Amino acid sequence: MLRLFLLVALCHAISALPYAQEANEVYRDMELLERLLELENSHDNLESRGFEGEKEMNLAGRHKSQSSAPINKDEVEMAAKAIDGRYDDANLLDENGEVDGGSCTVGRGPEANPHWVLLLGGDHCITKVSILNRGDGHSERLTGAVVRVGREPSLELDDNTGCDSPVTAEQAAVPGGTVDFECSQPVLSRYVIIGIPSDNAIIQLCEVRVWEVPLEQCLPGPEGQQELNVVGGDAEQSFRFKGLNTTQWASKAVDGQYDNDMFVDSQGEVEGGSCSFTGPEENSWWKLNLGEMHCISRVSVLTGTGGAGLAADAVVNVGIGPSTVNSQCGSPVSSSQAAAGGTTYFNCNPPIKADTLIISTARPAMMLVCETRVYEVPMDQCNQGRELQTELNIVGSDVSQASVTGEFNASKAVDGRYDDGKMIHDVDVEGGSCSMTGFQEDPYWRLALNESHCISRVSILNRADGQSERLFGATVTAVGSGDSIQTCGSSVTAEQAAVPGATILIDCDSPILANVLRISIDSSNASLQMCEVRVWEVPLDQCPGTDMDECASVPCQNGAECVNGVNKFSCVCAAGFTGDLCETGSSTVNIGETEVNITGSQAFQSSAVGERNSNKFAKKVVDGRYHDTKLLGEDGEMYGGSCTITEAEENPHLGIVLDKPRCISRVSILNRGDGDSERLTGTIVKVGNSGGFELNWNTVCGSPVTAEQAAVPGGTVDFKCSQLPGLSQAIIIGIPSPNATLQLCEVRVWELPIDQCKKDASLGCAPNPCVNAECAPGPDGQAFCKCFDGQNGDFCEATAMGVRCEPSSDEDRYIYDQYEGNIQSPGYPEPYGINLRCPYIIGSPDAKMIELRFDDVDVNFKMNNFLVYQPGGTLSSRSDDAVRLKNFPNETIVVNDNKVWIFFQTTYANQDKQKGFRLHFRILTDECGSDPCQNGAECMKGDKAFSCACVAGFTGQLCETDIDECGSDPCQNGAECVDAVNGVSCTCAAGFTGPLCETDIDECGSDPCKNGAECVDGVNEFSCMCAAGFTGPFCETDIDECASDPCQNSAECVDGVNEFSCTCAAGFTGPMCETGIDECGSDPCQNGAECADGDNEFSCTCAAGFTGPLCETDIDECGSSPCQNGVCRDKVNGFSCECSPGFEGKLCETNINGCKDSPCKNGVCHDEFDGFSCECSPGYEGTFCETHTNECASDPCKNGGECVDGVNEFSCTCAAGFTGTLCETGIDECGSSPCQNGVCQDEVNGFSCECSPGFEGTLCDSNVDECGSDPCQNGAECVDGVNEFACTCAAGFTGPLCETDIDECGSDPCQNGAECVDGGNEFSCTCAAGFTGDLCDKDIDECESNPCQNGVCHDEGNGFSCECSAGYRGTLCKTVFVSDKNGCKNSPCKHGNCLDEVDGFSCECSPGYEGTLCKIDTDECASDPCQNEGVCVDEVNGFSCQCSPGYAGDLCETNIDECASNPCQNGAECVDGVNEFSCTCAAGFTGALCETAIAERVEPANSCDSSPCQNGVCRDEVDGFSCECSQGYEGTLCDSEMKATYACTSNPCKNGVCINYGAKFQCVCSLGFTGTLCEIGSAEPVEPVNACHSNPCKNGVCHNKVDGFSCECSSGYEGTLCETKAPFRCTTNPCKNGICINYGEHGFMCACSPGYRGTACEINVDECSSDPCQNGAVCVDGINTISCKCASGYTGRLCEIEQPGGLLEKPSQLSLTLPVGEVTETNYLQVNLVAEYCIKKVVVHKRGDCTGARLTGAVVRAGTSSTGLNNGMCGSALTAQQAEVRRSTVDFVCDPPLTAKFVTVDIPLLRVTKQQICEVTVEQGTPGPCYE
């Protein structure tokens, strides 16, 4: 950067030197420049940190965001400005001061911790980030900015990795400076975050760039890791899509297209994509079979981007066999990874031995797998020699730890996130993956394995985001049977703990049999934190000293439980048995007693130590662990064992609820074994139906526990229920004491058959069966027990649970022998109380039924309040007989029993003050009163009893039972009986019929048996007794006597009825073909052969020389062709050979050699049958190869070439113009591009040039002088161009050829109907009568002579009229007239006040109206008051002006000073224009506002490159562009259709002409009409209106007509109002860089000059797009060429030449402005550069007079000749189109670059003048000469 500033400064200094100054001053300054450049070079050569393979990332399309954005701006759109690829644009604001057009992003304003975030899309290995600071103000705001890269989208200091230091104030002070942030080492990243950690800051960034190295440098992997080639591997998947099978789909993920993440091909078809697709489905998977065992260390998966990839939570498992429970590599895919896509890495730490890889997801989701790659290490790194070692799946296992800090509980260490070492994710502690204890003594973490495993290895993932050193000293211990504890491996060292995120492997010295793993730190104050624990095991038989299961042989008898020990066992006997093996029955148990399985039953206890929810610990006494007597866990934690304990309290107790009422006989309690067993002293057990704990509730079993019993740790105490309590569903265990602690380990329960708990009430009251209750005998003598005080049950043996019913008493609730009365809720009708439990009972021994009728029920049943009634003496809400009311019952309830229970319960609230209930009851002893008999039976009264006389078909006490007529089993023969009222119907079994199915159906009736068989009938069946020879169910089958295969020797058996016959095979005879025939008997063998007999055959053993079945054929010994080269003669048992010529020997096998005399002259001789043949050498032929071959005989040479024959070859001497081996190629004489301005046509030995329009000559090197034919007329000056000319017309003429005399009358200058007479560049007006003046614009005032005698004179065109005073009339108001009529009575004045006068009336018009009747709206626009082409809009009594752009003021009289805001910067001079301004920059600055310091060459931007004009042609200008709109369009960008804004489009004017004013309009009415829309017809005469008063013609002259007006349009416009520009023609020179071709009414076409394209040739073709520059050079685009800015150490046109020893300077910018020079008749400017420069480009800035046609043909030359015209030319001559564009810039590119000391601007058409012509800048140059 320093070099550029120095060079620019010196170049400006050179340009300011006068020619007379001594040259040594220049050389002195150049020497100073070189020394400064050397100093700068030494600064540039300071080495920056670099990494092998580092390259810049393409950030296009990456997701980005920022913390805030300016008001009404989108954060994402603003964030995108920092990666828009405009690497050198440091402007936040555009030319209008808006952020929209700038290239920088900025936040809304000062904020806390402003930041900018870039999502890279997948993992990248980042090495460097650079920031381009703002250059147009407040660069200091970047101070303190930091760059962090990593995998977390967070600015927290503990997240991600910082690259380099924060931006210093010195760095931020450089406007537009670039700050590099180099990472100390490559960082694995998904995010780049740039932020300013401050409470009040603004972030602004202009361009962010990022560099990376290959991803492997961030993931080095274990030693020896290399990629496993899986391309084309055996892959499968769970889902098939379209026509491809699952294997074809799956194979796309191993097709070797490592960077192709496209699911579809270019045609949108999935078959052509490179990705496998599964799901969406549950348990989607993709599998790769590796074929053989490998030690897998890493797996990478490429997926699609934008959310289309691996599902969140997808995992990679590798192992042996296709199982998803194999070992997991890495962590499950996170949500952010799933959203970003790209490549995800899964590290197997440690490496895993595997032959299968599976990618899967458990939830319904799709997976897109584009490429899977697998990495392995040597096999010796797997399992460390333990071949059968496998990982134990402990994800989600039962874990605990000494204490919990925050959310970091023990389960986070077994969550399956194997490589997530973060304790906190984005300030979210719940999102972390690590466990942590508090600081304490000996912190631990515990894993329960549930069963024994042989543990071989444990790994711990240490924390990665801070305090990893806390793991120092962690030790792994394994707890086995009998609480044996062994240590696995060594404790974690300080060095191991110092590595954040490291996985620490701990191998057990030998495998340990364990069911618990414990990790702890032996310290007085430490905190244990771990992020993932993993465990490996080997088979149990590899564990030393493995305990054998002595219970495997089932030694314990009689259902006893066997307990395995070390080399021993013990038996826990079932009830009733004893002995070591429980082999002996016990006499102390009850007969029929069995244990009740209460494991998992409902349990509760009165309290728990330090816990609110006590019931969860009560369940420990029913967990089935009959021998576990520990209250404390391994860690000493309360409730860690299998026992429970209460607080020290009054009456502590524990209850168990059974599944149903049972006859309980015995209960046992297992006491605590690990301390304080004596606390069980005094414990009692009660059983019954109450869940409370009071001494008068339920029944006590056994005696309280004695101190001796309680003193035995882990002892069992039995409680036998000596008096059976009846059926019980609750067991209560407690200590009746004011202060005691209850602790229990296991409770067991035994029961008897249920009938042993029932009492017989029929035995009456002696003895009294009632439990603590009065017994009253009933009418039948049965016992009736009267229960009180919460007792219930048939014998009052049960106690109601927790009676609480104040203020009622037992007398209110237990009612006996009262036959009618009421009961009610406590306190009724006052609101009932809370937490009530009120039992009621009504009954009498002689009661037959009890009626209940509720008078009132006011209870909120939704609040768990309830009201229950139940027949009988036992209260149980669980009973099927219990009825729970849900609303008010409207009917009387009848209970058929002598007792009824009612129970009322309330909860903790009665907010609505509800009353409860009131019930009326009646006890009935006469059952007939209630019509108790059912089904039409008659009730028969008796003595306090009744009976029912049932109708037929019913029975029962109440005839309630339909007699089951099927009870007598009337249906016969197994029929099904269906009962009916007083009858039955029988569904017969198969085979029977009749009303009672008494008849056996005769199945033989249909004569089913065939072939004379006898039918025997059965039940639903029959059988057939077949005649001889038949079988089958119906005797339908003829028995096949051939089935036993009686015929022998392959004879055919023929079956008959009860018989068979044999058809013998040839050679056999006999009944069964058992006898063989002797075929040798006829002596069939010939020629002395021996015959051998066989089965139906014989064989002949032939004598030598014969063959054939009968030895009848003489063997042809010649058949094998034994004679090799001759004829064979056959003999008996022999042959002889007659040899062919050339052969001899017994078999004619010897060849006689024909080549022995070497007959072949020029070739190789081959001996052949009876002769030889010659294989000739190349170039020879003939029998003996004696003839030389003529290769020219085929005339191979083309295009007249002469053939010269050689030996086996030829050569061609080509005719002129051809070349090639066969002269087949015409020489391209066009290769040297001889045609300068045209197309070269190659010809034979020559070429011709097809010249571009405007050029001629053999080489098209002459510009055709289109002015030669003197085309311009009327004295016009002709200016020649390329294929065109322009005419500068003399005054008074126009047109392309100046052929048209300008009609000065065309604008209708003469007014008031005057006649215009056109002349040469002038006109004259012949005035109509009444007018005068040059334009007849002055009305002659006929009123000047005061002709009206008694009135007012009104001057009119060529006359006057008199408005008479009241009482006068006549032409001159001479006549006196008197009238008594009111002239105003009809309101004649339309817009004014009517004044009645002597002889009529007069109108006093309102302002803005005129005329006799004030009908005419005065046209205030008639005087054309608006200046500077402003449009006048007529209004009532006024007007307004719509000013042209750039003007203001009421009359548009003021030119707006665009320079007033001082827009030009850096001391530039502002030049105001109309609606524009331009800046004349001070030296060293450039840009539209002179805002840019000239530093290094930046190509001038063509404002039209973005094609801003939507419907028109764009004109590039120095400070912007302008649009020439196509017909029908308007607007700054030609983006609006004219009709869309034309208010007149709908033709709103009914009877007149519509004049459009943008969105408004005005109607000019036709004669006889008025109104806003000319909608009102006028019956009165109207005054004529001049429709042209409002100037409706936009770009033309208005002609007034009787019914409106017409517009005569100016040149270039058309339309009704001349509002539309005419279609472009070539006369407007629309083609910027090319030739215009006119197509008449169809428009034009531009033929672009080389290097340009676009409709108007407005776009410079970017020749740099092919990246032609080499060796890191920067390509600078030119016109049809490029130039390369070489990197240091390279030179050449494309920087392809390495510069030895760094002798040349790095190319730099030369900026030289030519001074004002005196132009002489040479017509050129020339400047002396003093020293040599390599000039690459010269730029001409056109200012002031440096425009116009006179610049056409201007060229720029550069070279070492002081005579400028002898130097080389840069670029091409300036075209007429380029010359005419105002305020533009023209580039002249020197291709190739020119070594120059002089730069010349040659303008051939320039007249001799002595004024400044142009500003010329040499923008690209290198000190010193140019090098090839």
Describe this structure in words.
The strands form 55 sheets. Strands 32, 33, 35, 36, 37, 38, 39 and 41 form an 8-stranded antiparallel β-sheet that branches. Strands 1, 2, 4, 5, 6, 7 and 9 form a 7-stranded antiparallel β-sheet that branches. The radius of gyration is 60 Å and the shape is extended. Among the domains are: 36 residues; 170 residues, Galactose-binding domain-like (Jelly Rolls), CATH 2.60.120.260; 165 residues, Sandwich (Jelly Rolls); 154 residues, Sandwich (Jelly Rolls); 132 residues, Jelly Rolls, CATH 2.60.120; 144 residues, Spermadhesin, CUB domain (Jelly Rolls); 31 residues, Ribbon (Laminin); 65 residues, Laminin (Ribbon), CATH 2.10.25.10. With 1828 residues, the protein is mainly beta. 5% of the residues lie in helices and 37% in strands. The N terminus is likely disordered. The longest helix has 22 residues. Helix 1 runs antiparallel to helix 2. It is found in: Cell membrane; Secreted.
